[in-house]
């Protein structure tokens, strides 16, 4: 199968870019805001650098923009915000975004080929429709539950995590939280380069290069690329990926700059959909078996182009605009469901599926931030808009069929086939136009006490065309969400906060709303949260604590009087505690720990089982662990030597709404030993999953099929700086 580009895509991109720049240029600010002193109008360009030095700890005093567009620090934000620096991520050996972000408090993964390997869980809510993922503040709308970019951490400057409802910031689909991957940016210092080469067990190999710096007084750049390949940990588990990230910044004058960025990612992950259980448990003799067909295919190609403009006429006013054009092409051709047959010692393979996604998204986001004093009080306000258009085409070989039986231990994988007369072809197409208006305001009543509020209005119009039946229908979603919070800083390094927020979530994925969901609205939610944050011991230690309750309403549930009828009356909730700490115990010895415990439940949820209505009220939602913890110890025991060790714990989960199939908890340990040979070279030896724990990262087929995580693996890495 070949991917076909969307017609007229390039023309639409050029037209929208022109509109974007025109919109940006049309901001007519009051003269009072534009006035500056002679000193502030100095024509010397200010130094712009992005420090690659890791900020140890929780970075509570570092401004971030995921929890608030006002550029507040986590200490000033009435929400649970966590920042993972890129250097810390790479020092821990986390090469994928999923590996990195699941070391943050309360974030766990539920990766599978069908969701792009990126599905996350936070605060009792799982999946792409409840935990949103952004790249440099921009989201690609979820299509059929799948997001595939970003995936590699080599080009990451930092990852910012906002836990809890974030619809007021980013729209529908973020009741559990938001993960924002911020890439490295151009720097105006001297040009610096880094080369990394690595190799290890499972025939892994990696080559990566990063370069950035000043070309002249007005022009700077950043370029990063990484290539990975592996034979995997199952039969026929070959995988490879390539990431390229490039950006150029033009400083037109001290107040105005433009940054053009392009990112390209190609992935061919393992064509592995899991291992079938034998009598409800894992048979170690099957742990390396791959029951997919011999010509299976899983591939993703994502391309992101962004043009950022920023104007800061003085220290009180900032105007930002981002034009973006994103495309994604995905292809699956697999047999995806396997069942062990005890009577014969064979495995039956079902679901011979071929699916293609072709997605295009073009849009523009702009905001204006003004800082002022009103009635003697410090104020900060951000207002803005976001508009985009998404075109999506879904191709498949439905009605899905195909069945084969192979020996469980020795078999020919065979080839993919569809039932006679069934070919893969486009089945439906959606066109979605979305716009949003948002605002946020902070007022400081005293030096210690501030109140922050925000509001967002979202409007989305979708047309879905059935390309087989030649029919179509339209659907419009319109929602307003808001939040309000307060922060009291007893000292500059100790704050307590409280927040109330509302949210909206799609019933599946907004741009692929199905025929069965067309008559329903988005689910709604609300959260109450309180917490405390503190830096102590001369900033050698930091800690945070949060308690929250979230309720999500309007789930699809069966009518108690007629099980054949679906109603939007269900409810789901979670309440929990989260804590994190980072302490420099001794000079050169730092300990980072975090953990969460929660109670997630279906409060009102009915299913029809064999035509009989069954209540799931009181049960735990699927794929939601109710405990999770991380720890990482870093010890620089000699001037040029350092040791690291990390622990990851994920509690047990249920694979079904009836809570009859429980997936065991697991704990893995990773270690590293680094030697800074010279200023220009370093060597690192890493061992992942030291104790060779076998565990399920994700499950399918009603919990009878485990997608196993990586077993013990070792890697030797060399870095060169020049």
TrEMBL record:
- Subcellular localization, as worded in the UniProt entry: Cell outer membrane
Cite the source lineage.
Bacteria, Pseudomonadati, Pseudomonadota, Betaproteobacteria, Burkholderiales
Q: What is its main location?
A: membrane
Keyword set, alphabetical order:
Cell outer membrane, Ion transport, Iron, Iron transport, Membrane, Receptor, Signal, TonB box, Transmembrane, Transmembrane beta strand, Transport
- Which InterPro entries would you find in this protein's record? Beta-barrel_TonB, Beta-barrel_TonB_sf, Plug_dom, Plug_dom_sf, TonB-dep_rcpt-like, TonB_rcpt_CS, TonB_sidphr_rcpt
Q: Where in this chain does the record put each TonB-dependent receptor plug domain?
A: 75-178
- Signal peptide span: 1-34
Provide one Gene Ontology biological process annotation: siderophore transport
Q: Which residues form the TonB-dependent receptor-like beta-barrel domain?
A: 253-690
The cellular component terms of Gene Ontology attached to this UniProt record, alphabetical and capped at eight, are:
cell outer membrane
The short sequence motif called TonB C-terminal box sits at 705-722
Q: Which family does it belong to?
A: Belongs to the TonB-dependent receptor family.
**GO molecular function: any one?**
siderophore uptake transmembrane transporter activity
Listed name of the protein: Iron complex outermembrane receptor protein
What membrane topology does the UniProt entry give?
A: Multi-pass membrane protein
State the superkingdom. Answer: Bacteria
């Amino acid at each position: 199968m070949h991917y076909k580009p969307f017609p007229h895509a390039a023309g639409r991109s050029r037209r929208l870019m022109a509109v974007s720049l025109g919109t940006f240029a049309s901001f007519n600010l009051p003269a009072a805001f534009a006035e500056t002193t002679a000193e502030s109008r100095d024509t010397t360009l200010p130094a712009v650098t992005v420090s690659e030095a890791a900020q140890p700890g929780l970075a509570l005093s570092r401004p971030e923009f995921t929890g608030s567009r006002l550029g507040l620090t986590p200490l000033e934000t009435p929400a649970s915000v966590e920042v993972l620096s890129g250097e810390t991520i790479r020092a821990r050996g986390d090469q994928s975004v999923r590996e990195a972000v699941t070391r943050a408090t309360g974030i766990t993964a539920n990766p599978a080929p069908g969701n792009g390997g990126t599905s996350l869980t936070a605060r009792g809510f799982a999946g792409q429709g409840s935990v949103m993922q952004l790249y440099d503040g921009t989201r690609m709308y979820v299509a059929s539950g799948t997001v595939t970019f970003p995936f590699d951490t080599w080009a990451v400057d930092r990852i910012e995590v906002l836990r809890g409802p974030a619809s007021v910031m980013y729209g529908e689909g973020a009741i559990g939280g938001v993960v924002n991957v911020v890439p490295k940016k151009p720097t105006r210092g001297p040009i610096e380069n880094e080369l990394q080469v690595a190799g290890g067990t499972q025939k892994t190999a990696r080559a990566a290069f990063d370069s950035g710096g000043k070309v002249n007084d007005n022009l700077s750049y950043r370029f990063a690329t990484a290539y990975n390949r592996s034979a995997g940990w199952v039969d026929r588990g070959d995988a490879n990926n390539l990431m390229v990230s490039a950006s150029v910044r033009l400083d037109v004058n001290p107040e105005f700059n433009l940054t053009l960025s392009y990112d390209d990612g190609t992935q061919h992950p393992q064509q592995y959909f899991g291992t079938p259980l034998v009598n409800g448990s894992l048979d170690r003799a099957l742990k390396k078996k791959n029951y997919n067909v011999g010509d299976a295919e899983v591939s993703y190609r994502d391309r992101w182009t962004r043009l950022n403009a920023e104007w800061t006429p003085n220290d009180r006013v900032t105007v930002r605009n981002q034009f973006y054009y994103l495309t994604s092409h995905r292809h699956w051709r697999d047999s995806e469901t396997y069942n062990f047959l005890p009577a014969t010692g064979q495995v039956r393979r079902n679901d011979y599926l071929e699916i293609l996604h072709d997605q295009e998204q073009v849009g523009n986001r702009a905001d204006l931030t003004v800082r002022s004093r009103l009635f003697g009080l410090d104020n900060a306000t951000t207002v803005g808009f976001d508009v985009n258009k998404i075109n999506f085409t879904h191709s498949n070989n439905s009605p899905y069929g195909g069945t084969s039986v192979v020996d469980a231990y020795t078999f020919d994988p065979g080839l993919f086939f569809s039932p006679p007369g069934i070919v893969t072809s486009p089945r439906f197409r959606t066109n979605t136009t979305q716009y949003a208006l948002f605002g946020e305001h902070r007022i400081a009543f005293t030096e210690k006490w501030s109140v922050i509020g925000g509001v967002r209005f979202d409007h989305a119009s979708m047309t879905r065309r059935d390309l087989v039946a030649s029919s179509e229908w339209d659907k419009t979603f319109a929602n307003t969400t808001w939040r309000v919070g307060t922060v009291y800083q007893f000292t500059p390094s100790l704050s307590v906060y409280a927040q109330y927020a509302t949210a909206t979530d799609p019933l599946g994925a907004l741009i692929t709303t199905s025929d069965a969901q067309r008559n329903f609205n988005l689910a709604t939610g609300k959260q109450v949260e309180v917490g405390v944050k503190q830096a102590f011991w001369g900033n050698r230690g930091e800690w945070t604590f949060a308690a929250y309750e979230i309720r999500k309403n309007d789930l699809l549930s069966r009518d108690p009087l007629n099980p054949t009828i679906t109603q939007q009356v269900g409810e789901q909730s979670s309440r929990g505690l989260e804590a994190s700490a980072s302490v420099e115990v001794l000079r050169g010895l730092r300990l980072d720990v975090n953990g969460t415990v929660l109670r997630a439940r279906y409060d009102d949820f009915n299913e029809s089982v064999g035509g009989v209505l069954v209540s799931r009220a009181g049960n735990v939602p699927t794929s939601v662990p109710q405990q999770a913890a991380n720890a990482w110890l870093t010890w620089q025991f000699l001037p040029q030597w350092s040791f690291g060790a990390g622990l990851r714990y994920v509690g047990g989960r249920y694979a079904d709404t009836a809570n009859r199939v429980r997936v065991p908890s697991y704990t893995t340990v990773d270690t590293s030993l680094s030697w800074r040979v010279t200023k220009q070279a370093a060597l690192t030896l890493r061992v992942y999953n030291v104790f060779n724990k076998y565990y399920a990262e994700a499950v399918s087929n009603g919990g009878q099929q485990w997608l196993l995580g990586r077993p013990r693996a070792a890697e030797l890495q060399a870095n060169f700086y020049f």
